[in-house]
């Protein structure tokens, strides 16, 4: 079964999305990205992919209904 990748900003080589994030206020930066990409999206911290879940309902659904 092929899985679809979450949406997110296009990463740059080596630095990923670090240049687009305010690292002094990472939660605010991620919340702003959620307004563009929705409650589930991905960002790259350097070469490491991070999937972000925004909101109680989204986290609960991911952990309870999709805990595979």
From TrEMBL:
<dbReference type="GO" id="GO:0016712">
    <property type="term" value="F:oxidoreductase activity, acting on paired donors, with incorporation or reduction of molecular oxygen, reduced flavin or flavoprotein as one donor, and incorporation of one atom of oxygen"/>
</dbReference>
<dbReference type="Pfam" id="PF00067">
    <property type="entry name" value="p450"/>
</dbReference>
<comment type="similarity">
    <text>Belongs to the cytochrome P450 family.</text>
</comment>
<keyword id="KW-0503">Monooxygenase</keyword>
<dbReference type="InterPro" id="IPR002401">
    <property type="entry name" value="Cyt_P450_E_grp-I"/>
</dbReference>
<keyword id="KW-0349">Heme</keyword>
<dbReference type="GO" id="GO:0046872">
    <property type="term" value="F:metal ion binding"/>
</dbReference>
<keyword id="KW-0560">Oxidoreductase</keyword>
<keyword id="KW-0492">Microsome</keyword>
<keyword id="KW-0408">Iron</keyword>
<dbReference type="GO" id="GO:0005789">
    <property type="term" value="C:endoplasmic reticulum membrane"/>
</dbReference>
<protein>
    <recommendedName>
        <fullName>unspecific monooxygenase</fullName>
        <ecNumber>1.14.14.1</ecNumber>
    </recommendedName>
</protein>
<keyword id="KW-0479">Metal-binding</keyword>
<keyword id="KW-0256">Endoplasmic reticulum</keyword>
<dbReference type="InterPro" id="IPR036396">
    <property type="entry name" value="Cyt_P450_sf"/>
</dbReference>
<dbReference type="InterPro" id="IPR001128">
    <property type="entry name" value="Cyt_P450"/>
</dbReference>
